[in-house]
Amino acid sequence: MQSALFKQIVDEIKQSGGIGVDRYIELCNTHYYSTRDPLGVKGDFTTAPEISQIFGEMIGIWAITQWEKIGSPEKFALLELGPGRGTLMADLLRATKVVPGFKPEIHLVELSPTLIAIQKAKLSATWHREVPTLDIPTIIIANEFFDALPVKQFIGKLERKVVYENGQLAFNIATEDGITNEICESGLQIMRRLTAQAAAGIIIDYGYTTNSRKNTLQAVKNHKYHNVLENPGEADLTTLVNFPALVEQAAKPCKITTQREFLLAHGADVRAKVLNKEQDLERLISPEQMGELFKVLCF
Ligand SMILES: C[S@@+](CC[C@H](N)C(=O)[O-])C[C@H]1O[C@@H](n2cnc3c(N)ncnc32)[C@H](O)[C@@H]1O
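^ inputs. structure came back:
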């Protein structure tokens, strides 16, 4: 039996002749994230905060430095985009509570009612469905948020679309032979807004600093790659983040490092020794695992 989402996708395709990859990602990921907790061993994928508390703690150290740079204001906000289970923010707040005066308002941008319920059990915060404009100095945090946003794909001048053929979803053009340009309009817009309004920000994600113009759209289910067009809304759809494109939109200077460089520069190795969790840190910093594929953009 076909799902209600499959029927909705087919209806939209029949009305328009084909939907952009961005619309397909939007429909699938909204359903996917709204209907489950996808994180952890029992879910579909694991993220850095779920691997080790050290990740949130190091972002806490970074956040204190940014707060001090803006004069240690009494009233300020931490605004996290896509907080998942709320683990990063909970680790950050536990690690920073010893710092006198560091008492942020917590704002979270989340679309998933399932994940909001999990976040509410851990955090006292204000929730938003879209990026808000706050009237106090704001520090932004986003780990694995931008990779889940809708992306348009172009092969030459042709837009790649999802069509319906012989009772199945298909792409109108194959990407194998062509140069693929991926444009994440919502990510670029968010970047413009954040860098214009926020005091500082950190964006961590898997992505590239040199665009090889390949198709990077992928689906992951049960910790394995999955066919992008099979079981829409039941697998996590992502693309690699184009970091130079984000920097181009920025209203403030940005610095990009790797996750490895960032964590080591903030003392993650020392912390791992104290906790006796060197193996967990290795997953986060090893070049063969998350250390170099994941980039850290600070502004
Ligand atoms: C890959 S998870 C990352 C979770 C968390 N940051 C972590 O590192 O564990 C993506 C998060 O972004 C949220 N999300 C995805 N697309 C979103 C959107 N368009 N608007 C708001 N939240 C979104 C998901 O519900 C989820 O919380």
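The two ends are 48 Å apart (CA to CA). Residues 4-298 form a domain with the Rossmann fold fold (CATH 3.40.50.12710).
thumbs up if we can close this ticket
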